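PROTEIN DESIGN WORKSHEET
SECTION A - STRUCTURE
LENGTH: 101
TOKENS:
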């Protein structure tokens, strides 16, 4: 499982959480949007986490195929408008997508 890189605190802000998880902040947002804020509820501007939250997010980071994370980011950031596309081998493929290298 993913190693947390900081000592245990009561509350972590987004920057501290991404550093503790060893992931970039935009990837943290993609993971949160995929697993928590996926029912149409927008992600709040400032999210705080407990150490138990970080443990669950670390699990999701390990279990999420990087290809799906990249595809979610492409969709979330509307990069397909700029000509960036990807295909999902693990999900429903898009008819307009191109395979990742």
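SECTION B - SEQUENCE
RESIDUE ASSIGNMENT:
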């Amino acid at each position: 499982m993913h190693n947390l890189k900081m000592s245990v605190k009561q509350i972590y802000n987004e920057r501290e959480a991404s550093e503790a998880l060893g992931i970039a902040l935009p990837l943290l947002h993609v993971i949160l949007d995929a697993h928590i804020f996926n029912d149409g509820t927008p992600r709040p501007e400032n999210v705080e986490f407990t150490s138990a939250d970080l443990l669950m997010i670390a699990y999701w980071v390990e279990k999420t195929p990087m290809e799906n994370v990249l595809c979610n980011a492409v969709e979330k950031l509307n990069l397909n408008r700029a000509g960036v596309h990807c295909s999902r081998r693990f999900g429903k493929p898009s008819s307009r997508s191109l395979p990742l290298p």
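SECTION C - NOTES
The helical segments are 14-21, 25-35, 51-63, 66-76.
The mean pLDDT is 74.
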